[in-house]
Amino acid sequence: MRIVDLKIEDIAFGGKGVGREQGKAIFVPYTIEAELVSAEIVREKKQFAEAELVEVKESSPHRVTPKCPYFGRCGGCAYQHIDYEHQLAIKWRQVRNVLQRIGKLRDIPLRPIIPSPKQYEYRNRITVHAQNGMIGFFRRDSHRLIDIERCPISCDEVNQALTELRERNPPDGHFTLRTFSSRRVFSQTNDQVATALRDLIADLVPANQDLLIDAYCGAGFFAKALLNKFKRVVGIDWDKFAIAAAKENATEKETYIAGDVEEELGRLNLTALNSQVSRRKTDDSAVMTLIVDPPAIGLSVSVRRAILDLAPATLIYVSCNPATLARDLKELHGKFTIDSVTPLDMFPQTAEIEVAVHLHA
Ligand SMILES: C[S@@+](CC[C@H](N)C(=O)[O-])C[C@H]1O[C@@H](n2cnc3c(N)ncnc32)[C@H](O)[C@@H]1O
User: Fold this and answer.
1) What is the domain-level CATH number for residue 214?
2) Tens digit of each residue's pLDDT (9 = 90 or more) over 248-292
3) How far is CA 200 from CA 76, 113, 127, 305, in A?
4) Does 239 map to a domain?
5) What pLDDT, in 10s, does the model give residues 202-243?
6) What is the pLDDT of residue 286?
7) Residues in the chain with pLDDT values less than 70
8) Active-site residue among 68, 77, 217, 320?
9) Where does a domain end: 35, 63, 91?
10) Number of domains making up the chain
11) Pocket around ligand 1: residues whose beta carbon is below 6 Å from it?
């Protein structure tokens, strides 16, 4: 395929640099905006093309040496070649752009991004794959494995577990390696940023309320940190192991439901809510907070509808995918006002972005 010279204009959501040839976008991984590069086109579509970096001809002052020998081949990290401050600037800008473009939002109350205290060695769990004697991660844009001996964004304990797994010559399959402290059920991946997220939410949620609904609650990470602000707390998650963990040490005011948010949120709306909230029935939504922390696909149409019906006074939306967040906010924005949008860097060196949005009805 042919080689082109490009000026990189921006870093797209997902981490690839974007240059243009006669107006057509060409995506080149491992580049930085303002760099002049030559790149080989490897896939050409009508609207855009994908290319591989051949040479950086004029490099960005933000370019640094990656710490990982697998960087560029492993599918995990996208930004090890960019200094950390600039990674944060890119992610902040991407959140703003995606909320404007997909969410059609204007005057977004976007706060500064919360950085990760650790820029490497932060992951408390990884899932590696074993196949034909190879143990590692998938290569970028592929289902082929790259053999990995050590992952520099993972903490020592996880890397120790990886060494032990490799020594055992495991059968083909998927293996999740965790620190002792991270539970078997879903837990946030970067302990320090998870604490910052939990503290942020504790700051945003007003005190003296009746009911907290923590949808997609996992083991109750947010619910348990907010107990002192509510009379009743209801958590919903379809992972019954997570719900069992949430029920351990649960106080009387906590109820955890093992079920699909899709069904349970609407059900709560119709029945359980009125009996659990002890205020006058006409005004029950005025004293309720709803937290949603869905997986990357975001909220389904019916969950969005249930939230609009529920009309909680405070709505906190925690997202690991700004694109689905933007789609959902576009609809929720009709009924709710956005008070703040805070990006958090839960996953340094990768293109992943976590965002916490505070809304009120
Ligand atoms: C991003 S995690 C959030 C977990 C939790 N908030 C925490 O901080 O530990 C998403 C959670 O949603 C749950 N989940 C995904 N889809 C669901 C659904 N349709 N109904 C109920 N739970 C769901 C998963 O089991 C997982 O625990």
Assistant:
1) 3.40.50.150
2) 989 999 999 999 999 999 887 545 555 555 554 445 444 899 999
3) 27, 12, 28, 26
4) yes
5) 999 999 999 999 999 999 999 999 999 999 999 999 999 999
6) 46
7) 181-186, 269-286
8) 320
9) 63
10) 3
11) 186-188, 216-218, 221-222, 236-239, 242, 260-262, 293, 295
pTM given for the model: 0.93
Tell me if residue 151 is catalytic.
no
Using CA atoms, how far apart are residues 31 and 57, in angstroms rounded to an integer?
11
CB 62 within 8 A of CB 82: yes
Regarding whether 174 and 246 lie in a shared domain, the answer is: no
**Scanning the structure block, which residue is given the tokens 């809304």?**
359
| Inside any domain, residue 116 | no
pLDDT of residue 184: 60
| Domain of residue 3, residue span | 1-63
In a domain, 231, yes or no: yes
Within this chain, do residues 40 and 160 fall inside the same structural domain, yes or no?
A: no
Question: Nearest C-alpha to atom 27 of ligand 1 is from which residue?
Answer: 218
Ligand 1 pocket test target in 185, 216, 226, 264 with most atoms within 8 Å of CB: 216
**What are the residues whose beta carbons fall under 8 Å from the beta carbon of 22, sequence distance 6 or more?**
none
Pocket mutation for ligand 1, best pick of 182, 237, 307 (most atoms within 8 Å of C-beta): 237
Residues 141, 208 within the same domain: no
Strands (DSSP E) found in 155-229:
173-178, 209-215
Residue 312 and residue 215 share a domain: yes
In a domain, 100, yes or no: no
Q: Whose CA is nearest to atom 22 of ligand 1?
A: 237
Q: The tokens of 34 are what?
A: 């303002």
Return the structure tokens found at 298: 């975001």
